[in-house]
Automatic annotation (TrEMBL):
Location in the cell: Endoplasmic reticulum membrane
Keywords from the named record: Endoplasmic reticulum, Glycosyltransferase, Membrane, Transferase, Transmembrane, Transmembrane helix
GO terms of molecular function: dolichyl pyrophosphate Man9GlcNAc2 alpha-1,3-glucosyltransferase activity
UniProt protein name: Alpha-1,3-glucosyltransferase
Stored InterPro entries: Glyco_trans_ALG6/ALG8
Superkingdom of origin organism: Eukaryota
Homology family: Belongs to the ALG6/ALG8 glucosyltransferase family.
EC number(s) reported in the record: 2.4.1.-
GO cellular component: endoplasmic reticulum membrane
Ranges that cross the membrane: 12-32, 116-144, 156-172, 217-237, 257-284, 364-382, 389-415, 427-446, 546-565, 577-596
Pathway field: Protein modification; protein glycosylation
Membrane-protein topology: Multi-pass membrane protein
Length: 601
């Protein structure tokens, strides 16, 4: 098995990172969205056009209708940070080939050199923003998993790295289709890493930056809100890493209440200042032209939240699109009614996760809440795109240190949901290549094919295999990624191939056992869930493994059917519908599983 062999080499994680960058580069040799398809081309032209706009127009005209920036030709419809990113990338592309960013005359520009530079900017963004942030997040997750009692060995960490960096949906969306999701996802990963390590203000800033790069990051907002509110209310008593003030040092409950309120106020100030810094350069120069501060802000809002586009576009594997075959939502209801309905369903879906984090905030609970919140928006949200499946994929793949099976199942089920879009883009070859490569590298290391994962405190095989070379036994996790304050992954120790928890709680005394029980049980059901359902090698682990394999075989059969039998003339959309319905049928049980799992994490 490839990953098992890599465990014996010193630079195993480094190899995975640079191998993933090579795969991204090779994917970039394919076509892209709108390739040679005038007059509007596609997302590639949209990103190039935004470079042209931000490089040649003053800040107050970025979101303003004009002859040089018409609303019918790829207007800038992302928040200001995307504009600043386009400006920086525009400098790079324009420095190499000025014609690629010249005003008006560059519309539809597709020279070989400009394509190389455009692809290079995506790889550079991936390497600078996403890679280090994802590594930091993985280290934080490994610490949290180890401190929850599960033994995390080097193989588990390497498997998680491979899942995160070789995840095919992210690669083909950014480096095939052409976008810069790696930036907002990288900023979100950085926010996760900071918050899981107790740096809630730094994490809040990073998440606000993610929101100001792509508005789709709003999918994560309820989870972050619930977790940070829970931490502020409980002063971190539910998280081993998030402790600001010990309750024993506070004189009375009234002072504790003041401390909690002050924390909430500080978080609010951090959020408002971050947004103000991001928006001020764009909004302030437009005040006179727009007729005031509020109209200037609303001009940007109308661009980034175009509710007039409708409930959904094209084929997306969510509730509205799949059910529209039977219920013609767009014909029966107006946009306003559909928007309200979708928001109600979305809130009802993510509300349990938010409540859980307000009541019992924890590092791993945050990740589950992020999966559930983003899934809720994807399944029930208004104006959802195919690419938005990247959002639940991010926390799910970070959780692969604890649960690789479900993360891989989700990644492989998500690829067919993108198939109708990717075929139109002309990137079918990378689609199949990336899917097969991911499956070939990851599946042999998962049950039932792979080695048995290390057990946890809640059951399973507690005996760890000393399967690493003797020369590596004394190495620390800091050789993989450096944890905070120079410690090995923030207290995670590496001995004989294992990552063990840095135990800080009193487990011997009666008080320690009682406190531990409070944090790990829910009406006495938590231990039963972990014993019979939660582990990778218990009943549910095997079931999910076989369901994932069956799902993969079904997807393969669906592709073969599409190439073998053309659809009838009266239903030319048949296979597009089948692909998104297949993915939706996988997404629903995965979402339900994560919803339940959060309450027992």
């Amino acid at each position: 098995m490839i990953l098992s062999l890599l465990c014996r080499f010193k630079w195993d994680v480094t190899f995975i990172i640079f191998f993933s960058l090579l795969i991204r580069t090779l994917c970039g040799l394919s076509d892209y969205s709108g390739f040679n398809d005038p007059p509007k081309f596609g997302d590639y032209e949209a990103q190039r056009h935004w470079m042209e706009i931000t490089l040649n127009l003053p800040l107050n005209e970025w979101y303003k209708e004009s002859d040089n920036n018409p609303s019918n030709y790829w207007p800038l419809d992302y928040p200001p940070l995307s504009g600043y990113q386009s400006l920086i990338h525009g400098f790079l592309v324009g420095w190499v080939e000025p014609s690629a960013t010249s005003l008006r005359s560059s519309w539809g520009y597709e020279s070989p050199l400009s394509k190389i530079m455009m692809r290079f900017t995506v790889i550079l963004s991936d390497f600078i923003v996403f890679v280090p942030s994802a590594l930091a997040a993985l280290a934080a997750v490994a610490t949290a998993v180890a401190n929850s009692g599960r033994i995390v060995d080097r193989h588990c960490f390497l498997l998680a790295c491979a899942i995160v960096f070789l995840q095919p949906v992210a690669i083909i969306t950014d480096h095939g289709h052409f976008q810069y999701n790696c930036i907002s996802l990288g900023l979100t990963s950085g926010a996760i890493a900071c918050i899981m390590r107790g740096r809630i203000y730094s994490g809040s800033i990073l998440f606000c930056l993610a929101l100001n790069h792509k508005q789709m990051s709003l999918f994560f907002a309820p989870a972050f809100f619930g977790h940070l509110l829970g931490v502020a209310f409980q002063n971190g008593s539910q998280s081993s890493r998030i402790v600001t003030v010990s309750s024993s040092t506070l004189p009375n409950p009234s002072i504790r209440l003041v401390q909690k309120v002050v924390t909430v106020i500080k978080l609010g100030i951090v959020v408002m200042l971050t947004f103000a810094i991001c928006w001020a350069p764009v909004v302030l120069p437009a005040i006179h032209d727009a007729g005031g501060l509020i109209p200037a802000i609303m001009r940007v809002f109308h661009r980034i939240f175009p509710l007039k586009r409708g409930l959904f576009e094209d084929y997306v594997a969510n509730f509205w699109c799949v059910s529209s075959l039977f219920v013609k939502w767009k014909s029966l209801f107006d946009n306003a009614s559909l928007f309200k309905t979708s928001m109600v369903l979305t809130m009802l879906s993510f509300l349990p996760s938010v409540i859980h984090q307000i009541l019992r905030p924890s590092p791993l609970g945050l990740l589950f809440a992020l999966v559930n919140s983003s899934f809720s928006f994807f399944i029930f949200g208004f104006q959802v795109h195919e690419k938005s499946i990247l959002l639940p994929l991010l926390p799910a793949t970070l959780l692969s240190i604890q649960d690789p099976v479900t993360a891989v199942w989700l990644a492989l089920a998500a690829m067919p949901s993108m198939y109708p879009l990717l075929v139109r883009d002309g990137v079918a070859v990378p689609y199949f290549a990336l899917s097969m490569l991911f499956a070939a590298i990851i599946l042999p290391d998962l049950p039932p094919l792979g080695r048995r994962l290390k057990g946890s405190k809640h059951g399973g095989d507690m005996k760890a295999k000393e399967d690493l070379d003797v020369n590596h036994e004394s190495r620390k996790v800091s050789d993989v990624v450096v944890g905070e304050e120079g410690s090995a992954a923030g207290g995670l120790k590496y001995r004989r191939g294992l990552m063990k928890p840095d135990v800080k709680e009193d487990t011997k005394s009666e008080k320690g056992r009682n406190e531990r029980g409070k944090n790990s049980t829910l009406f006495g059901l938590s231990s039963l869930w972990r014993q019979y359902v939660g582990g990778e090698w218990k009943v549910s682990g095997w079931i999910r493994s076989y369901v994932a394999l069956i799902s993969l075989l079904f997807a393969l059969a669906l592709h073969i059917l599409k190439f073998s039998i053309p659809p009838p003339d009266y239903v030319p959309w048949l296979y597009d519908r089948l692909f998104v319905t297949f993915s939706f049928a996988n997404f629903v049980p995965i979402m339900v599983y994560y919803q339940i799992q959060q309450w027992f994490c």
